[in-house]
Amino acid sequence: MSERIPGQVVAAHGRQYMVELAGGETLLCFPRGKKSDIACGDRVEISRPAKDQGAIEAITPRSSLLYRSNEYRQKLIAANVSQVLIVVATEPGFSFELVCRTLVATQDQGVAARIILNKCDLADKIAPARQALAPFVALGVPVLELSALHGAEALRPLLAGHTSLLVGQSGMGKSTLVNALIPEARAATREISEALDSGKHTTTHARLYHLDPAKPEAGDLIDSPGLQDFGLQHLSRSDIEHAFAELAPHLGQCRFRDCRHDREPDCALRSALEAGQIDPRRWAVFRTLYQGASS
Ligand SMILES: Nc1nc2c(ncn2[C@@H]2O[C@H](COP(=O)(O)OP(=O)(O)OP(=O)(O)O)[C@@H](O)[C@H]2O)c(=O)[nH]1
Ligand SMILES: [Zn+2]
């Protein structure tokens, strides 16, 4: 048996992975066997049958796994993340539901979340954006306002000591933000794309960057492709109830143990909604997710 070498997946694209080894060398790797449930951020053990190619033999247990799913399949986003940064912008408008769904996924994985409100140079658009974000602020989700076009230094201290995942809809300015934080990102991405795609121009992969290669404590940043939806088919009704923090004081208080929080009498959740203790926009997303959950 050949020697097992530890490494970390720094780029994932289909069944191809770039794995960083101790010392910073990166190696193109393929998973052993048919399965490829490996994500950017995964710590792995590889074997090296050839100098310029590796085989992923094992995945080290993860501290967290962010993924999306529908009825048919699941899509891994990133592993071993300690905080998720949800990028929204003053313009164009962002999806309230997508932010809620991302927060559900982070809450489920016990990962911290922050919202970054980008494009705050567009001064007249800030007030409506703040209003749209108010329900998240009320929940205690920190919001950082910045303008990636003019720099992202305010964010840097919040990244120290973390592996942070950047997620957001297309057009919110995620790439601008990555380039502001990591000026060499564009070149690194091009290099990786060439290795992974052999010339094809797809940018569908997640990518891990070291904020300061000389200082591991500066943190790592994983950039992921723009999100259009965030399917959470893998979560049960109970998972969803527990992922909406504002419901916590009311869970278990309904008259019926198997209350579906719909039209049942003496539903504690509906009472809290009617008493104004639960934001109606959050409630609407909760209902959508709860009704779609399998059990
Ligand atoms: N006014 C303003 N525009 C910005 C800012 N940041 C990004 N933009 C612009 O917003 C547009 C989208 O930015 P990108 O960085 O490409 O957005 P993205 O989220 O990476 O989008 P995709 O690449 O489609 O996933 C570009 O025209 C940027 O120049 C900002 O802070 N202020
Ligand atoms: Zn109920």
TrEMBL record:
Cofactor: Zn(2+)
Domain EngC GTPase: 79-228
UniProt entry keywords in alphabetical sequence: Cytoplasm, GTP-binding, Hydrolase, Metal-binding, Nucleotide-binding, Ribosome biogenesis, RNA-binding, rRNA-binding, Zinc
Keyword GTP-binding: yes
Binding-site list for GTP: N118, K119, C120, D121, G168, Q169, S170, G171, M172, G173, K174, S175, T176
Zinc found in the keyword field: yes
Cofactor binding: number and manner: Binds 1 zinc ion per subunit.
Biological role stated in the UniProt entry: One of several proteins that assist in the late maturation steps of the functional core of the 30S ribosomal subunit. Helps release RbfA from mature subunits. May play a role in the assembly of ribosomal proteins into the subunit. Circularly permuted GTPase that catalyzes slow GTP hydrolysis, GTPase activity is stimulated by the 30S ribosomal subunit.
Protein name: Small ribosomal subunit biogenesis GTPase RsgA
Organism: Azospira oryzae
Gene that produces this protein: rsgA
